[in-house]
Amino acid sequence: MSFLEESKELPSRALMFLGRVWAQSRPGRVVQLLAEVLLSPFRGKRATVRQIGEIFVQQVYFTAVEAAPIVMILATLVGGVTLIEFATVLPRIGNSFFLGDVMVLVILRELAPLFTAFIVAGRTGSALATFIGNMKVHGEIDALESMGIDPVRFLVLPAVLGSTVGMVCLSLLFTASAIFGGFMVAQLLAWVFPGSLGLDMGLNTFLERTGMALRFLDMLVMILKPMSFGMAIALLACLNGLSLGISSHEVPQGTRSAVVDAIVVVVVLDGLFAATFVLPQVANYIP
Amino acid sequence: MSEVLSETCGLRFGYHPDEYILDGVDFEVRRGDVRILSGESGKGKSTILRLLIGLERPSHDALGSAAGQVFLFGEDIWDIPKSRLRDLRKRTGFVFQNNALISNMTVEDNIAMPLRYHTDLPEAEISRIVKRWIELLLLTGHEDKRPAHLSIGMQKRAAVARAMAMEPEILFLDEPTAGLDAKNTDIMLSLIGNLRALSNVAIVMITHDLGSAKLLGGRIALLVDGNLRRARTMEELLLSSDLRERELVREGNNKDSAFDHESSFPL
User: Fold this and answer.
1) How close A138 comes to chain B (CA, Å)?
2) Cβ B86–A48 below 8 Å, yes or no?
3) ipTM score here?
4) pLDDT tens digits for range A260-282
5) Is pTM, for the whole model, over 0.90?
6) Chain A residues with CB inside 8 Å of B100's CB?
7) DSSP notation for B128-190
8) Which of B149, B147, B179, B180 is nearest to B161 (CA)?
9) pLDDT tens across B188-229, in order?
């Protein structure tokens, strides 16, 4: 082959090399798995919907229903602590009328999705990675493949859907519980320090102030953030489980990676959400 | 001559670059054939079986080595998309050495799984098929148990029932009698013989127990130094001019087995 012909092939070879590097990298594998999950509903028989549906319901139950008590307790405490912190600061800069904005901004936009994601990563992510990892090391994934069953459609799709729906439900529950916790603490502070912190208000006023602060964008974030977090946690858990070899010793490593990866990715996604939804608003205030 | 179901041509395969554990495997299975694969442990017999249904494929990350061709039902499985390969696998059954039953499912659900996934059969029909296999594989009364609550023999029979649920044209068995006592070995072998008589399924079986396996009436292919030798009858192998082959056959033939034709289970 002449030098000219070789140089013509160089760009395509470079592209192929980059493609391979990307396909083997962790982000590349996550994107690949996501693409397979998105395409998998269109492959296979409709009859599998029943089997997949069962796993989906189990996943929602495990992610949302079983975690509900701990999330409610945690959220009530977080809501209370958040209100205490801001109730002491807000009177210094004006009055407590902005309490609703604070609750919406801090809890609804940030704390609820983040705290819930950490709980889901610790509970669902670890359980899912262990479950799929055990299946992998015991040859059950190969057994599915040998029967012509697509593990992505059979296991990963319902797990991702279930975790996503469960995460959204749990995040909403966290928000409601945190606002309730905040209200209870407001009542307590108003009773201990009557009139001093501007917290003497009924439940209706408290909810009204919170509701006034709520905008369409917040509601959008309230759904989109937990959706993306839930999807990322489940995808990473499945990927870590499916990437294991044949040794049982690898299962705890896969579980650990699933949780750590999920926490890192959730924080990165949170930053991306802030950049997408908040920065444009900040730009409006720049003269 | 009957149709070729599975075939390899000049197959070479290794898990590391330029290191082949299989070095020149030419093998074919026709409809109704029985092929016994034997040889020393850890030399790649299970890998051949996994290659035959595409559970091992050449990797694109240059970590492994592979050459040659593997055909399943006439299609080069290294050259087709995964979705097509899964379609072809519906026509095969595979019994793993460790059974690989889905641990969180009952025996009944394990057997019904491929039927529920691949067919639009109503649940009543699926239950009827599953019940039939449960009866044939002597698992009656254990339908609702999970694999962990079964003996090794029952687990292996459940794995065979699951592999047969879709009535495959070719059944791959990876040491189906490993870890079984003489009585359970006999039961398993006679059941496999019965399945063959019932459905004319082609069988590819890995075993070290040639004394029992020869009773299935198949030809034996020995894997020696990564090379799969031509399939021959036990008598031909015992008269082989190759000392290694004769040794391997004698070792396999001397395994304890109380196999008795009369103990076969009538269908």
Assistant:
1) 6
2) no
3) 0.88
4) 999 999 999 999 998 887 777 76
5) no
6) 138-140, 142-143
7) HHHHHHHHHTT-TT-TT--GGGS-HHHHHHHHHHHHHTT--SEEEEESTTTT--HHHHHHHHH
8) B147
9) 888 888 888 888 899 999 988 777 666 787 788 888 887 888
